[in-house]
Design brief:
Layout (H helix, E strand, L loop, with lengths): L9 H11 L1 H20 L2 H6 L6 H19 L1 H13 L4 H25 L8 H6 L2 E4 L2 E4 L2 H19 L16 H37 L4 H12 L5 H10 L5 E4 L2 E4 L1 H10 L8 H4 L3 H22 L5 H18 L3 H4 L7 H20 L11 H8 L10 H23 L11 H5 L14 H7 L6 E6 L3 E6 L7 H6 L4 E4 L4 E5 L4 H15 L1
Antiparallel strand pairs: 1-2, 3-4, 5-6, 6-8, 7-8
């Protein structure tokens, strides 16, 4: 796989960057659930409603869960600084991750040095600290560059790693060569960058604030712009960029919570979760979070799945039932929508556009109704943990009502469009029978997929230059795209195949994609 490394295009770079966001975000989502359960079940409102929970052992356990859950919120920037080079590096990923931590720590030490020599530090004057955006970061007083600063560190570290991880130094310095040189050059580079950041950061801050102003100036349609934009970027794997900007930067709002200024919709929500003095959640933050997804995720897409089932040929319905049910479960329980969306994205792009608009409208409707349910996934778990458990103040009771409206709307729209325009959604193809016969069930591995057949459909080991995955897709660079057999990939379980350019493609596999990728990597290493 490393014999020939095509140069990464700008498109591939942004796709790879967006993919790396999923590692800290996945942990953040899980920690958010722990924080939500712990904080809600130890709150005064819940104890008044359910006195049986007011037992020392139970309360210690709930507070412990909340403490563990607050971890991801407290150390989110450094997790991004580590995850980006870890995810983007093609070789020696552990070294890249280590260098990411080194780079982030050195950057803040260098900024601290600049603040000291310019007389801003040391001080305990809250007004001076706030005016210069100085926060305590990893125990270092530094300018709070937030997630954007961590992303910049991660990108620079990735570039340094790719450039120097196999460097050869003169014999006298050979000990410091190769991978050992990466954290060394990272420390020097971040030390210099830390002296530059105080001069350029105000411009970055104003740009992000400007983006937030554009979104917020749209009023109630701001959430719709965000929700629709996220869905439209999803087929290209770029939605994580937009999501991170709104969740973790000033573009998603800024608020003082428990005496500390925090920025980003999700950051504000989790800060309020962790703050015992906060009652209720800010509507300005939650309007960009889970609640906006719920109409489409809990109602709309299941309605679309039912429409596709009813529009399938009667003799094929039993064959697609499992596919649709697993897609609905992944969507409703896991918040993973691609297994359903890719069933109609390529055969009916206009339907996908309508889906994107309705998803965005769901964000706006929930915001207008004053619903305040946060977190990231928009699934039934978020609904109960961050909605129901926090009482009627979250207005969670609107969720099933609006989801039901979206269910009917999607069902009517999809059934009419599929039938009227004869859209070839699953089960409507005459050749469904012959396609299924191509699958060799004897070769199915632990992932539930016939990995050898998938590898063969990609042109074999010699045709794969690089192999990676994101949440639901294999991301592959091939030597010769003409050797890729889309039909066989779909016959062996692929939900969709996206040809990004002449050498890069994505194969949508669903939630088990990590297992498929691991099995493929094992087969490839055994073949070499």
């Amino acid at each position: 796989m490393s014999a020939s490394r095509p140069k990464m295009s700008l498109w591939e770079f942004f796709q790879s960057l967006g993919k790396t966001f999923m590692l800290p975000v996945a942990l953040l989502s899980f920690c958010g659930i722990l924080l939500g359960i712990g904080s809600s079940l130890s709150s005064g409102d819940v104890l008044t409603l359910i006195p049986a929970l007011d037992q020392p052992f139970l309360q210690y356990m709930f507070i412990w869960l909340a403490k563990i859950g607050s971890f991801a919120f407290s150390y989110l920037p450094v997790m991004f600084a580590i995850a980006i080079p870890l995810g983007m590096a093609r070789e020696n990923k552990g070294v890249a991750a280590f260098a990411g931590f080194v780079g982030y720590a050195v950057l803040n030490l260098s900024i601290n040095f600049w603040l000291n020599i310019n007389g801003i530090l040391p001080t305990t004057d809250a007004a001076v600290l706030k005016a210069n955006n100085v926060q305590n970061i990893l125990g270092i007083q530094s300018i709070d560059t937030g997630i954007l600063g961590a992303v910049i560190v991660g990108i620079v570290v990735f570039w340094l790693h790719e450039r120097f991880h196999n460097i050869r130094l003169p014999d006298a310095l050979a000990f410091f060569g190769g991978t050992r040189f990466v954290p060394i050059v990272t420390a020097m580079a971040m030390g210099v960058l830390g002296l530059v950041v105080p001069h350029i950061w105000p411009f970055f801050a104003r740009a992000i604030t400007g983006l937030g102003w554009v979104i917020n100036s749209a009023g109630e349609f701001g959430p719709m712009i965000f929700g629709t934009g996220e869905r439209l970027l999803l087929p290209f794997g770029l939605q994580h960029i937009l999501v991170a900007i709104i969740r973790f930067t000033d573009a998603g709002g800024t608020m003082d919570v428990c005496g500390k200024s925090v920025s980003g919709a999700l950051t504000i929500f989790q800060a309020q979760l962790a703050c015992a003095d906060t009652h209720g959640f800010a509507e300005s933050a939650t309007r960009f979070l889970s609640q906006g997804k719920m109409p489409a995720f809990l109602g709309g897409l299941p309605g679309a799945a039912l429409a596709m089932y009813h529009c399938a040929r009667p003799e094929n319905r039993h064959k697609i039932k499992g596919l649709l049910i697993s897609g609905v479960v992944a969507c409703v329980v896991g918040g993973t929508t691609e297994p359903l969306e890719f069933l109609f994205l390529f055969v009916a792009p206009v339907l996908y556009l309508i889906h994107a608009l309705l998803t965005g409208l769901g964000f706006t409707v929930m915001a207008m109704l004053g619903v305040t349910i946060g977190n990231t996934d928009g699934n039934v778990i978020d609904f109960f943990v961050f909605g129901v458990l926090h009482g009627l103040s979250t207005k969670w009771y609107w969720v099933p009502v609006i989801a039901a409206v979206w269910f009917v709307s999607y069902y009517v729209i999809f059934r009419f469009a599929i039938s009227h325009f004869n859209i070839k959604t699953p089960g409507r193809e005459v050749e469904t029978n012959s396609v299924e016969q191509q699958v060799n069930r004897a070769a199915v591995g632990k992932s539930g997929f016939n990995t050898p057949a998938i590898l063969s459909a990609l042109g074999g080991v010699e045709n794969i230059a690089s192999l990676d995955n994101c949440l639901t897709r294999l991301r592959i660079t091939v030597v010769d795209m003409s050797k890729v057999d889309d039909a066989t990939l779909k016959a062996n379980g692929a939900i969709g195949v996206v040809h990004v350019n002449a050498t890069n493609l994505q194969v949508v596999m669903g939630p088990q994609v990590q297992s498929v990728k691991d099995e493929m990597a094992h087969l490839m290493s055994a073949t070499v």
